[in-house]
């Protein structure tokens, strides 16, 4: 369901944020910050931001198939890897950058289409377990096809040097490219999931039988969602190569793939803002845990994941709503003046009410 | 010929390990409808407990039995204090919780016992037996037999006892089970405990061969998942048979098909899945699920 597509503004407490003038000003302000910030920030911050952008796009792709259409895909990282390899191969062989970008989108999309044609026949969790195969088989396959992939050593290319005369450093230029391409992908995806196709995805997720009775073929929309997700994965692969400039079979390992799924759920499933939060989580948490103690990385990551989901089963994106609910509940407890509204009944089970809320929002 | 038989027997033995974990996954899935990605991780933790006990001069067999008991408790605790909160919610979130649990357990194993390989003593002697001129390792036969016995015991429990009947009732319809007075929560804990205990058996059996590391069963988990799809989520026997098929086929393909070799043998079960699922989407032995609207 199209939850939280409007950043944080869904809570009733902050209704002034829903005024068009306020929202446009905020958007404009954000745009100005995004344009100016790369010039001011340090190289390390810029690179980190660019990496967050890369993985936010990857998480967004996963969200299309998993969050919006409800098909668990554990293979999204494979399409990122494929896109990165296509980019690396194209750049090493001196292809035109635009052509390389087009191929880095197209080849993963075609691969995704082929996988989906078979996988979408399955229902429920079986599709999850078929998509597991992609990273599992992808890693040894990439090692084997060393003529194209450079084998275990991987490939490194740097092609995003800032154009002469622009006065930009490489890291600033890369961040701008990520912002522009990522921004376009986010905008396109936002209109996709809010329009006719998004509603079809939602009904396929909700109930396939109802979908077919309405003339919406679950099979075709699952294939479509999976293909779009693969295409977005390819875009993120291109950006990955642009920013990180190195790819190896390890890029698409199973561990990375499930981390991506974790990032999506932590950020917030079926949410555009949640995808950005997912990218933040994917990049920043390992940096944080590494800084604390490298030998405890896995332990801390697992613990953080569990704690976040325990407190916010709807992901980080549901934080504002959870906060307002908490506030309302405490104010209702404080005085009898508070009107006997719904919040008093929400004390029961958090997950159930949350689902109801999202549903209401999605159909509004 | 001798090599072929040896490969088949070894395949059956690794297949049994995959089968045990796959069966644990099916147990949990039948009871709660979710896939537990931490099943392998929990088994590794159990193997570490057994290993730790042996280094404190507990005899191996008792160490393994204690680790199985520990796993049963661990499974029940995880169900009660962690998974219960997510069981009725979004299934995607529940799956990711088990992924988080896997990461956490791997981290705990690495933190407590380091990421270095540890030698786990084998329950069976290292020798081979000759049978009609074919050498077969005792360990492979032993592993297969132990897993078969564990599965028969489990089957007896489910079909022949009152507890098994209650567990099945909860799996089929938790609400009706609750209405007829069954303690659904406690039975779910037992279900998770049994699954974890089965995993612990598999962990103890495979640890000598793979040497003990926190990520020891990560690949086994993938094979187990493959067996689960291939056999069909609704059929415990089908899952085990599928695991054996996978174990044998990947062994044979690695040796006899040049292109596949040892690095790409992991692709074998998935190629198999692809072919099977296009013909039979419900898996080899699964029932077709009919959705009532």
C-alpha-based Rg of chain A, rounded: 21 Å
Unreliable stretches of chain B, pLDDT < 50, 5 or more residues?
Answer: none
**DSSP, total strands of chain A:** 2
Q: Quote the distance from N terminus to C terminus of chain B.
A: 55 Å
- The chain-level structural class of chain A is mainly alpha
- What's the story with the biggest beta sheet of chain A? 2 strands, antiparallel
Give the number of DSSP strands of chain B: 2
Helix content of chain A: over 70%
Query: Which range best describes the helical content of chain B: under 10%, 10-25%, 25-40%, 40-55%, 55-70% or over 70%?
Result: over 70%
**What is the architecture of chain A at the second tier of CATH?**
Orthogonal Bundle
DSSP strand (E) fraction of chain A?
A: under 5%
Number of domains of chain A: 1
**What number is the mean pLDDT of chain A?**
83
**What is the string of helix and strand elements of chain A?**
HHHHHHHEHHHHEHHHHH
Spell out the helices and strands of chain B N to C.
HHHHEEHHHHHHH
Please report the distance between the alpha carbons of the first and last residues of chain A: 11 Å
Q: Regarding CATH, which class of chain A? A: Mainly Alpha
Structure explained in plain terms:
The complex is a heterodimer of chains A (364) and B (293). With 364 residues, chain A is mainly alpha-helical. Chain A has one domain (29-332, 342-363): ABC transporter involved in vitamin B12 uptake, BtuC, CATH 1.10.3470. Chain A has 16 helices and 2 strands. Chain A has a two-stranded antiparallel sheet with strand order 1-2. In chain A, helix 2 (43-68) crosses helix 13 (272-292). The longest helix of chain A has 27 residues, at 218-244. Chain B has 293 residues and is mainly alpha-helical. Chain B has one domain (2-216). Chain B is 71% helix and 3% strand. Chain B has 11 helices and 2 strands. Chain B has helices at residues 2-32, 39-55, 60-81, 91-113, 138-160, 162-172, 174-179, 184-210, 218-231, 236-256, 267-279, and strands at 128-131, 134-137. Chain B has a two-stranded antiparallel sheet. In chain B, strand 1 (128-131) and strand 2 (134-137) form a beta hairpin. In chain B, helix 2 (39-55) runs parallel beside helix 4 (91-113) and helix 5 crosses helix 6 (162-172). Chain B is globular and about 60 Å long. The N and C termini of chain B lie far apart (55 Å).
